[in-house]
Amino acid sequence: MLQYGKIVRYLLLESPLSMSPLPQPSSNLGLIPPYLFAELDKKIDAAKAHGVDIISLGVGDPDLPTPQPIVAAMQHAVADAATHQYPAYNGSMPFRAACAGWMERRFGVKANLDTEILSLIGAKEGLAHLILAYIQPGDVTLVPSPAYPVYRNYTLLCGGTPITVPLKAENVFLPDLSAIDPAVADKAKLLFLNYPNNPIGAIATPEFIEEAIAFCKKHNIILVHDNAYSEMTFDGYKAPSFLSCEGAKDVCVELFSFSKMFNMTGWRLGFAVGNPEVIAALGKIKNNTDSGVFTAIQQAGQVGLENSDALTADINQIYGARRTLFVKGLQELGWPIEAGAATFYLWVPVPAGFTSQQFATLLLDECGIVVPPGNGYGPEGEGFFRVALTQPEARLTEALERMKAHGISYTMKSSPALQTV
Ligand SMILES: *Cc1c(COP(=O)(O)O)cnc(C)c1O
User: Fold this and answer.
1) Residue 58 Cα, ligand 1 centroid: separation in angstroms?
2) 41, 290, 375, 414: most buried by Cβ count inside 10 Å?
3) Nearest C-alpha to atom 15 of ligand 1 is from which residue?
4) Which of 250, 284, 308 is the last residue of a domain?
């Protein structure tokens, strides 16, 4: 009995579990804002529970399947036991050769297989580890706003300071590099750019790319170009590689992703190409963190790159048609927007009198339509919402019909009742 009592007393009163809380996560983790869709997700779940038929134009995740030749290559590759062992950490030689061949065919950019190309478990992984490789407390990065959240959040996770570079409509959503305080620029280690752009869909002019490279050379900054949407373009527009600029490789590393190029978000495949010092630093982090990309996935990805013109043409035809349909529908509802040349995103201003959050909430409450509010991509995104064209045309048409039926238009008046959130 006594023994038993002692045990109970230990468990209840003296057990380390009940006596002291667990250690707290790194304080840097506390700097990361809640997940962009967190608030909306709660409302979406509640709406679904009430049987509402939700049309999500939210997450930038293709609804279309990966092209069949890539799937077939994967099926073949996965049956080969030679793919089952740890992969070459920097990417197999044939995969890197396929990446180099594609860079040369597509952009005229030459890259050394051994020193200038590295396989990635998606562009996001590459971005995060690149930041980890360069940023420690006290270091500064230049981060556009609005932007893909990883640039800013991973800088914060590493204890660095992200300095916001605004993207404004009046400057066709290109940053005004001359407005950056030279003292800040001298301190910065990394500048992030992303054209064609998520969330805006904007593209970079050749003059701007030259200017960005010159700026980075002048201030000794590594230019990290996230080229995740290089192939998702329309109306004959071809997006450039920043590396095709004279001397770009002195300061630039570019990240490519198979996710949006070939509807392969779930597969996790990308590659980094560019300055060999930067590739080596990123490789060192990766070598100590992950063990590379499943060889079968690399083999499937090669088939994508080898047939990229035909495969992306098919995919872009679908997204391009959706874009035309939805832009026209929004124009009919009074929106002053034009179809852009790239990405499956539309960056749409909210009607006067609404915040981004209020208007996104209104679309969900009134129409069952999910869109992320623009401020989720940075403070400069306030006043906009993003549309991801990741629904078939019939659903996009239905979304537009619901908006029309509920009196949603660019010129609609906000009422206090609509602004409770
Ligand atoms: C989708 C996306 C990525 C992530 O690509 P993965 O290869 O799936 O990790 C990176 N950057 C931007 C801007 C994106 O929109």
Assistant:
1) 15
2) 375
3) 198
4) 308
Q: How many residues does the chain have?
A: 421
Looking at the structure of the chain, the number of domains it has is: 2
CA distance 65 to 314: 12
Q: What is the atom index within ligand 1 of the atom nearest the CA of 258? A: 7
CB under 6 Å to ligand 1: residues? Answer: 60, 122-124, 148, 194, 198, 226, 228, 257, 259-260, 265, 270
Domain enclosing residue 379, as ranges = 28-65+310-420
Whether residue 196 has a cis bond before it, omega within 30° of 0: yes
pTM strictly above 0.90 = yes
Of 119, 120, 124, 262, the residue with max ligand 1 atoms within 8 A of its CB, to mutate for a pocket test, comes to 124
- Both structure tokens of 375: 């401020």
Nearest to 130 by CA among 99, 157, 92: 157
Boundary residue ending a domain (308, 326, 354): 308
Which amino acid does the sequence have at 272? A
Beta-sheet pairing, 270-274 with 117-120:
antiparallel
Tell me, yes or no, whether 386 and 296 share the same domain. Answer: no
Q: Are residues 60 and 114 in the same domain?
A: no
Q: How far apart are the first and last CA of the chain?
A: 59
Q: Which helix (H) or strand (E) holds 155?
A: helix 150-157
Closest CA to 403 of 412, 393, 394, 390: 412
The residue whose CA has the least distance to atom 11 of ligand 1 is 228
Per-residue pLDDT tens listing for the chain (421 residues): 445 555 545 445 555 555 679 999 999 999 998 776 677 788 788 888 989 999 999 988 999 999 999 999 999 999 999 999 999 999 999 999 999 999 999 999 999 999 999 999 999 999 999 999 999 999 999 999 999 999 999 999 999 999 999 999 999 999 999 999 999 999 999 999 999 999 999 999 999 999 999 999 999 999 999 999 999 999 999 999 999 999 999 999 999 999 999 999 999 999 999 999 999 999 999 999 999 999 999 999 999 999 999 999 999 999 999 999 999 999 999 999 999 999 999 999 999 999 999 999 999 999 999 999 999 999 999 999 999 999 999 999 999 999 999 999 999 987 755 554 4
